[in-house]
Amino acid sequence: MVANAQPAVWGDPAPDYSATVLSGDPVYLYTLIFVDSKITRHYSGNLTLIKQEIMRMIKESNTYFSQLNMRISVVDVLQTMRDDLSLYTFQTYHYNKLRNLPYHDFAALISYRYAGGLAYVDGMCSYRNNLICGFYPHNPEAMGAIFFHETAHLLGVAHDDKEQPLNVSNCICNDLTLAQEIYESEKYSPSAGCLKIPGFDHDCSAQHLANLLQRNRCLSKKPRSEKENVEDGYLDWSAFYDPALAMCGNGVVEGDEECDCGVEKFCNEINCIPETCKRKIPFYVILVFEQPFF
């Protein structure tokens, strides 16, 4: 089933999902991003700049992923040199190239000035692990919510009948007293709702996603190494990895990062600066002080 395109959510910050009941284990998501030829032309073929601007969107989406204990990493950003790909034809395009691609959990086609997104519902652990997300160069962050929304579709969140209640176990919004506290809080807005993913009609859709993640069996519960990827039959991509794709705040040590404890709100690692992913005290200093003196 394909989820229908959704209107963009412009400028709104990520809702507060702190009331979501989470499992103890994070889930690691590796995405391989493709851009259409219109994006390539807009940036005059400058792949360095393309990656930089695409990462602005992904970093915004991380403000959603991180709250639900999801670690999103970008494996690479590749150019399609095509502007005629639909979700269906992108699925075929991606499938035909799989042998020559690095490990990834899903592939995302970023489409120039498309005000929405499309994805296969529950396609993450199958050959339908594809989504399309729009992109606006004047404000790349604006589509971060849509990227998250479409990823939620891949993980199994569908657009249910808005006239029917969405029954989600362990959702705090089911408790009318607790839900009222959320509705009356300063952070509440009608579009944010109560644990609602932007673009979905029901409260508790964020909790629904968290519950689906607990049951997921194909996504990794720890960072993957290049050795594991090669052993699983994927190309060794280490020589092609661009440190510019490292995303400080996603909870994964990448590129030139010394540490990554996630976004500042969730960082509980004393010796890591969440804004820069650098150590407060270098390891070599700690090791010196730990050496016994005679």
Automatic annotation (TrEMBL):
**What keywords does the record list, in alphabetical order?**
Metal-binding, Zinc
Q: Which GO terms describe its molecular function?
A: metal ion binding; metalloendopeptidase activity
The cross-references to Pfam families, in alphabetical order and at most eight, read: Reprolysin
- Source domain of life is Eukaryota
* SUPFAM superfamilies referenced in this protein's UniProt entry, alphabetically: Metalloproteases ('zincins'), catalytic domain (SSF55486)
Q: Could you give a single Gene Ontology term from the biological process aspect?
A: proteolysis
**Keyword Zinc among record annotations:** yes
Q: Which residues bind Zn(2+)?
A: H149, H153, H159
Q: Which residues form the active site?
A: E150
Using the record's annotation, list all stretches that form the Peptidase M12B domain. 27-223
The name of this protein is Peptidase M12B domain-containing protein
